[in-house]
Amino acid sequence: MIAKMGQVVSPVFGANTIFALVFPGIVSAFGVFFLRQTYMGIPKEIGEAAYLDGCNQWQTFYKVMFPLTGTSVAALRGQFSTNFPVLMAGSLLAMLPMVVLYLIFQKQFIEGIASTGGK
Known about the structure:
This protein is mainly α. The protein is 76% helix and 0% strand. The chain is built from 8 helices and no strands. The longest helix has 21 residues. The chain is elongated and about 70 Å long. It starts with a helix and ends with a helix.
């Protein structure tokens, strides 16, 4: 039986808590890479400014860096709640007009490709 990670960690960290929702996304391979890229994009000068203001490393992370990654953490929280049937239906509706236009103008597309072929 395969269980969702949120169901596995909610008894440990408490049900309906932000940490129980965010933790599975952070420890996944995608979450680690995503947050690493986010932190690599933050200028080092921000951490240096926090150090000059008297913050140690933990305070710099907790009070300066982590709030800057709020949107990334929110994206990871929604990682496991994607409604794929609705997403696929929307993709189909977005793609359908292009397919219909191609089918209507297929002869012109092929003629245009053939005429650019050379000799």
